[in-house]
Each structure stands twice: as structure tokens, then as C-alpha cells.
């Protein structure tokens, strides 16, 4: 039996235009709405799969304000059976602070007889791209860590994690307990059904306060990449442009000579 803890974060929906806050410290979500990242959706799916395959249970955790309950309920609606909410202003917490709070939950749950043998996270935060929490958490707990994988399974007390690396497909085998960060693409996240949503509403969410004062991210500011340049070539006007259009289509391989 393997109990899995999957960590998620309430982030701005970046499917539209990305806008930063005035101080450049975060992505502004006032007009975009909120969700969880694609990486974390896959991590939730893998947590549910591993728990089901080993007879364990999948739990979900987040650190965020009261509104982050929405993302916890979404994870509960697709198969997680327990949820923990560290209620705090996420903008005050840097990666080291978040890792410390997750580790505190893992230790407290173990002391209460509800140990987590595997912790899954998204590979990086969709809003700040820190790429740090999973590694910092592993150091905090003294557990092995595998980063940026697409699939995860457990066989005889060993985590088998696979994904694409710089030299091709890679597979890692590490003993439990372990920390793994997940990239999207390895599994298809399931979407909540109406019965699943109704069941999720009835789950009592464990609420906690932070275990220590946060040090903060020490971030100078976020920067948006410059817009991609675009070039426009005017081929002509009216019927006189027809030969130029034909030549262009032939260059593109749309028309055969």
C-alpha cells in the first residue's frame, strides 16, 4: 500500500494574454481567472493511479489563500480522497518556504499514522517558473528526488519514473519514500464528473497555519519576453498581384509547377 501526496498551486490561467502586477512580482489574475497548471493536473492523475494500483490513497495539498479551496476540490473530484490546506498569502512564500511547509505536513501526517511514501509535484510553478520546490523538499526530508518525468509507477517499494532527457528516453528507479516532479504529456488528466464534484464537496479539508514565518522569494521582478516579431509583405493590389500570389504559393509548395 502506497499513500501519495500530490502538491498543487492556484495559478493564473495563462491561456490568454499574460499581465504582470504593477510591482512585477507576480502574474496578475484579476481578468484571467485561476486554475492549476497542466503539470500538476498530470501529477494529480499519476497520484490517483499509483494509489489505486497499490491499494493506497491519494491526498492533495496546497498553500494559498481561501480561494485555493477551489483547486483542492477539483483534485478531490477526480480521485484524491483527502486534502490539506495551508492557509496563507502565497505571495509571501518563496520556494524554500513552500518546501518547508510541505515537509511539515509530511512529518505531522507520519506522526499521526498517515505517512506519505511518495510526494508528487508539478515540475515548476506555472506563474513564477521557480523549478525549486521539489528539490528543496527532497533535501528537507532527506529523500531521493527525480525531476521532470512524464510517468510514475511503484513496483515492490521502488519508484519507476520515466521521461525524455537530453540523450533520449530515461527511466529512473529510486527507493521509497521519494519526491518526484512531473511534466505534462505522460498521462491524460481525467476531468471531474458531476458525482465526483458532489462527492468532493462533502470532504472535510484539513486547514493549517504555516509552521514558521516565511523568508519570501527574494525575487527582483518577473519579466515578460518581448513579443515575437512579425513581417508583412505586400504582394500588390488588385488583379496585378495575382502572379506574385501564384509565385508565393509555389515557393511554399502549395502549388506544383
Structure explained in plain terms:
The structure is a single chain. With 257 residues, the protein is of the alpha/beta class. The protein has one domain: Rossmann fold (3-Layer(aba) Sandwich), CATH 3.40.50. The chain is built from six helices and twelve strands. Strands 7-11-6-1-4-5-12 form a seven-stranded parallel beta sheet, sandwiched between helices. It has a three-stranded antiparallel beta sheet with strand order 8-9-10. Strands 2-3 form a two-stranded antiparallel ribbon. Strand 4, helix 2 and strand 5 form a beta-alpha-beta unit. Helix 2 packs across helix 5 and helix 3 packs across helix 4. The chain is globular.
Tags for this model:
257 residues, Rossmann fold, 7-stranded parallel beta sheet, 3-stranded antiparallel beta sheet, 6 helices, globular
Write the layout of secondary structure elements.
Blueprint lengths: L3 E5 L2 E2 L21 E2 L2 H17 L3 E7 L4 H9 L4 E6 L7 H17 L6 E5 L10 H9 L3 E5 L1 E5 L2 E8 L2 E8 L2 E5 L11 H8 L4 E3 L33 H10 L6
Parallel strand pairs: 1-4, 1-6, 4-5, 5-12, 6-11, 7-11
Antiparallel strand pairs: 2-3, 8-9, 9-10
What is shown here, in short?
The protein has 257 residues and is of the alpha/beta class. The protein contains six helices and twelve strands.
